[in-house]
Amino acid sequence: MWDEPGVALVFPTSSLFSLSSRGTTGSLSSRSMADLVAQALCPVVHCFATQDVVTALERNHLGSLSHLLSPFVALDNVQLRLPSTLHQRTAPRFHLHLVDRTLTPSSSPSPSPSPSSITHRDELFVDHLGHLVAHHALVSDSDLNHPPPYSLVRDAVLSRRDDPVLVPFESFSHPLAALVALSTSHPDPLNALAHLWDLVSPANLYSTDPHSARDFASPDILRFVVLVHDQGAGGGPAAWADAQRLHDTVQKTYGVHSALLPLFSAAPNAVDRLPRAEEAPALWAHLDDARERPESYAEGEEQAGEVRVVGLGFDADADADADDSGPAAVPSAPSTSTRPTFPPQRGLELSPSDLTSLRTFAREFVLQSLVPFLERRGVLLHEQWQASRRGIGG
């Protein structure tokens, strides 16, 4: 697989966990190095959702569109074609990396960060790595069996894939597709979709960087529309018929890369309320362990330490002297009363049919839209690579 030029930019090559960890020690270190390498190569999909969709998700303690889809985007036995020979191979496990993007009003677009701000962001990240190493050194002095800080630094570096700021040299973090979700009960769905469609165009999606889109490896992306039909908002059969007509209009206007997703049929306000899916909260439980529970849950309060942002040259003795000479330059450690509580049960308004709809949507999105798009991109990259190898004689 690795001897195919351009393939590494398109397809993952190994089994991996679909979401990166956000600062937990054991989440990434419990997997093999092959999985970690594959995680750095899996396709990135940026997710956009309007406020009405976010409100419906918050009713079910789901933070975002990526949080909703995360348990369903890992597929087994996906057929892929090699760009050079077009021979099929079966990927035993195909994963996506979902990154949420916030929407900005059309009247006040978010300004592009300057090169100095990007440099400052990188400097803060290096300081964060210095804090991890320094805190680990303090803990290892009292515990000789404490492992080296390699896993902490590695997890922090890999978690940067969640950063929506795009830079040309980090090609593996560039999105290959964008999911645009809005509710069928939106007061003006077509105009809202037109704004979102323009927002996720290559020219705007990559505008978070001061460079133009042509500076990126491949600014062409797949844009997919998700119409979320919130059955908890009421409406009954008439609202469902309107949603189907809206879906037909969207397909005629924006193409076949769209889906109508009925959800929350177990909500109290649903007209034809269905029983709640008992297995729904468990689908997000392991994700909460990896994404939201801080390290102090696993290591205890005595190892949580003081929250500091320091450089790689952190010196505990010098810092103590500085604290005696004047006020501290960094915020003090937060009190235990402000520690986040354990995540609540999620997806309480989802019925078994809703879970089936989510699984069907994830599989159709990957097999019918994303994989064919990536295969076409892979063939194009391979042809361009072959053309660059030709000599003067052709």
From TrEMBL:
Pfam families: TRAPPC-Trs85 (PF12739)
Span list, region Disordered: 318-350
Compositional bias per record (Low complexity), positions renumbered to this chain: 325-340
Domain of life: Eukaryota
Any one annotated GO CC term: TRAPPIII protein complex
Protein name (record): ER-golgi trafficking TRAPP I complex 85 kDa subunit-domain-containing protein
Source organism of the structure: Rhodotorula diobovata
